[in-house]
Amino acid sequence: MNIVVCVKQVPDSTEVKINPETGHLIRAGVPSIINPYDHYALQAALELKAKHNFKVTLVSMGPPQAKSVVQMGMALGADEGILLSDMAFAGSDTWSTSYALAKAIKKIGKVDMILAGMQAIDGDTAQTGPGVAQQLGIPQITFCEQVEVDGRRVIARKQIDGGYEVLEARPPVLLTMIMTKDYTPRYPSFLAVSASLKKPFHVWSAADVGAEAHFLGLKGSPTQVSRIYPPPQREKAAMFSGSGQEGAGKILEIMRSEHFVE
Amino acid sequence: MASMDAISRNLMLDSLKEYAKRRIPYDLIRELDEKNEFPAEILKEMYQHDTLGLHLLMVPAEYGGVSGGTFDIYRVCEQLARIDLGIATGVFATFLGTDPLNVGGTEEQKEKWLKRIAGENLLVAYGATEADAGSDLVNLRTRAEHVVKNGKIVGYNVTGNKQWISNGGVADLYTILALAPGGPSWFLVERNMEGFSPNKHEDKHGIRLSNTAGLSLDNVYVPAENLIGMEEGKGLLQAQAVFGYTRVVVAAFGLGAGEEALEQAIRYSQQRIQGGGPLSEKQGYTHKLIVPNYVRMEGARSYIEYTSQRLDSGEHGLQTEGAIAKYGASEWGNKAADDAIQALGGYGYTKDFPVEKIKRDIKICCIYEGTSEVLEMTIYRGRWQEHLKSRGRYYLDMADRLDQVHATEPKAGAHAAALGLRALAAVLEECRVQKLTRHQHVTFKLGKLICAAETAAIFSTAAAAPKYSETVRFDREGWQAMARVFAREAALNTALEGLALVLGAAEQAGNLADAVNIEAVQAEQKGMIADMDLVAAKLKQTFKAK
Q: Which of A258, B19, B78, B403 could join B252 in a cystine, given CB atoms 3.0 to 4.6 angstroms apart?
């Protein structure tokens, strides 16, 4: 089987702040990381590769420095890496990105399984993975916590409210992965990083994948972001110590003084 | 070796950070520090090829390593120092111990030993220091006597004692400097050789996770093929050949530990409310304890990078540059860690907070690989020669180049840095005319002034460049403000301290106050508080409270 893993480079959201005046992200000094959900998806693919000797190809879209997440994946064991990098892609929303990624996957050729993180931590939309499946016209299973292959059957455990369900699909299929301890991400050794430089890595432009310009970038994106702003800061909560009973009494006192209860 | 590409380097750094996060939490470090215990398992694990393979960084690819350059090694060592300076020292000892082999080994020796170090994950120790031979290796007492068979030298009997050897009690392989009949020479000594024994692990003030022990060599038979370079008498040259690089590594330790202490203080200061607001908003706190220190550390960083890049581009030696890098980073880092304790107040004085340990640890940077005083002398000697050779033009020419930098980018502090260099040139010249360098104190003090003035020049040049190094975590506005603060302080100290130095030593006072252009240096201080405000704001923005 040929597996494609979609990976994205994102700013480490624990370090990001928004400038309240301009609405822009303050990126200075903020490290870029592999989207944590994609890291789990990559680990799932690498475990399938170890078990079944599948080929794993990574696809990412981003500026040239996004090569970092592709190289990291190759250092961890992926066989090949592709970065879609072109000014034409800049500003693409999830629809446009799905379109471009689908074009790249078509160009790769025979692909049996596509794994992607459930969502990226910078946008939290959870749309790109399903969008790729839609663009390719293949089935999708979202929120997967485990994936296995038995012959030509792909078996996925999908997380649902209060439990999970086991679904089966015939390839080609796209799965989006959640973060689960079954696929704890690893980090490459120095030697593996060095060796990854010898693996095939390609940078593809919009023209390389045959993507039409009017479906790309800001102009090709149906979503327009009008403003980004941090949620207004809430007043600091009052904290009480002591027994539960004492705490309840104090809360009741406040509710009475604020006329929530009589 | 040239440095590797930035992406590979940063992936390695990420792996190291993640490893430390998982395996070396502060609680464990604190426990080991208290017990004075070397974490052998962790070191071995860090060397495992499929975990990190940290030691492969300094082994060329043809011998199974990853061919790290000085810049790569500086980055990794900075990160190690942020984790724990004792562990960093243990790793560095392997790097240092391997250096004589890298520099002076024959092809056969490299093929055999570098491959073993890489493949068998050997811990290595560098055995140079003795009771009477520290930075001054001329008084070396350890002897290597010929063992002759059939008229041919087949080996050496090595006898002597080494002290304060990092990894001394735990290494698998030792490079030992001994006095052979042909002069000081390096020998490869294996732990299990008869007559070789490590002494007790020292009970140290800091870097307690690093094993430090003396070594006893009692008639240890070392085969002739273990003489590095297969030629006697090359030992001191081989040791000196890597001073530029090894001192950059220790500079990286001072930088990493110093900045780590400050960053912890910056995060703390945003949560600590005193007098109606967080400490991070109070100039009496930030402008005394945080800003000047952080600015100096960034100055040290720019000098470390400048030296690393020159070494990676193939320049050799750079002993003076290595000394400047190490002296600045160590002294400023030590001061930064001290102020970080002050910045955390009573908390900082307890072992619950890492700054207390960092302060104990970082002091070693002012001692090993050349004490600060030895470096003051080294810096002075190197640059005094340049001053004489150029007939006083060395720093004036550098100042002229900074004028050009200032003309293209006036916000990077290049003007202040140029003033500092011209003041330095005037002080040096006055010392020459009045023969003041007969006073040792003058020469050492000149070393200190040179370090700051030259670092200011390099920092301003870097801050004026169109593109910044991957290590700069601030925007252009913030980093240039830092360069301006550094350059102003350096110019003021050079002029005032240089003037005081000359006046204190000279028999007649000349017009040095005019020559150092004290008025212009003072006028240049305009805007200092506003810049410090800006730096304080940028630091808070970059190192947010957790």
A: B78
